[in-house]
């Protein structure tokens, strides 16, 4: 066959760049690929099996969107750039990290994402909790504390605390390092995956953890509100209080969620209860809210059913792996 | 000596207390 013939046979491709929390990857995608084809390729490359928490995110006209799985990549409203960039991120959060995150890679990606959200102050965190979290992050990165090796200044390059916390105290970089190191030294013997899991176990109790917030308006009196969607349900907050919702609808108590143009309607299971209607800023945002509701609701229901064979196998594998690691760690 | 890591809440209390003397007036 001639070179020309070979060339003709090759399918047309386009390039994408996928950015994870700690790596960048480039892929050649076939023009006909659906979102799922690209997503599966990324998951296979990462060795990730707990795929249901994740998605490929992009930004279009200032709004965050997630690549749809069942639609062709090129038929979606993605940015016109070469290569097209996607962020591989957790889209849904577990209700209990210690029970649901099985693979080490899944835990690690969650750890990195939540740590960034805390440092970027997207999740509010008190100063004392940030110090404790920082000590686990240091244990995960540096292993056991060794004063001969971890000399003063060893944390100078690490971003460990949110800027807001640093500003709250008259403390030098070295004083912070000393404080964090004192707690870091307490974690001796904890392996990297355990330290990251301890970090997540603390972070999951923070009020803003795992909540996607959207500004909304209620039709009645046009008060500005925030809608929060998370693993447990839908919450309504005052615009200046993202910590405690005024009202919550657990997934099991919701009959139906629907939208038309900018209006979204939540119908509670209890037919006597008031139907909650509100407006979001754009149709696109409504679609995103609904997407997050459907995904979170599905996971909520899945958690309350018997584990699939795949999950049972993964749980057994995770248990074995943990036991093996613990033994190896103790032996060392 | 590093503080003893007893329980989560005790740890938080200890950190809070140790930070207190350094709090800026506006945030204390």
Would you write up a description of this structure?
The complex is a heterodimer of chains A (332) and B (28). Chain A is an alpha+beta fold and 332 residues long. Chain A is built from ten helices and twelve strands. Chain A has helices at residues 3-9, 35-46, 97-100, 104-119, 127-142, 163-168, 173-184, 192-203, 283-303, 309-331, and strands at 13-19, 24-30, 54-60, 63-66, 84-90, 212-218, 224-229, 233-238, 247-250, 254-260, 263-268, 276-280. In chain A, a hairpin with a 3-residue loop joins β7 and β8 (233-238). Chain B has 28 residues and is mainly alpha-helical. Chain B has one helix and no strands. The radius of gyration of chain B is 11 Å and the shape is elongated. The model of chain B is unreliable at 1-5 (pLDDT under 50). Chain A binds chain B through residues 126-129, 131-132, 167-171, 175, 179, 182-183, 185-187, 202, and chain B through 2-5, 8, 11-13, 15-16, 18-19, 22-24, 27.
Keywords, please?
heterodimer, A: 332 residues, alpha+beta, seven-stranded antiparallel β-sheet, five-stranded mixed β-sheet, 10 helices, 12 strands, B: 28 residues, mainly alpha, 1 helix, 43% helix, elongated, disordered N terminus
Seen as an oligomer or otherwise, the chain set is heterodimer
- The shape of chain B is elongated
- As residue ranges, the low-confidence spans of chain B are 1-5
How many β-strands of chain A, per DSSP?
A: 12
Helical proportion of chain A, percent range: 25-40%
Number of helices of chain B: 1
3D shape of chain A: globular
Q: Unreliable stretches of chain A, pLDDT < 50, 5 or more residues?
A: none
SSE series of chain A: HEEHEEEHHHHHHEEEEEEEHH
Number of strands of chain B: 0
The largest interface is: A-B, 19 and 16 residues
Rounded to the nearest angstrom, the radius of gyration of chain A is 23 Å
Number of helices of chain A: 10
Residues in β-strands, percent of chain A: 15-25%
First-last Cα distance of chain B:
26 Å
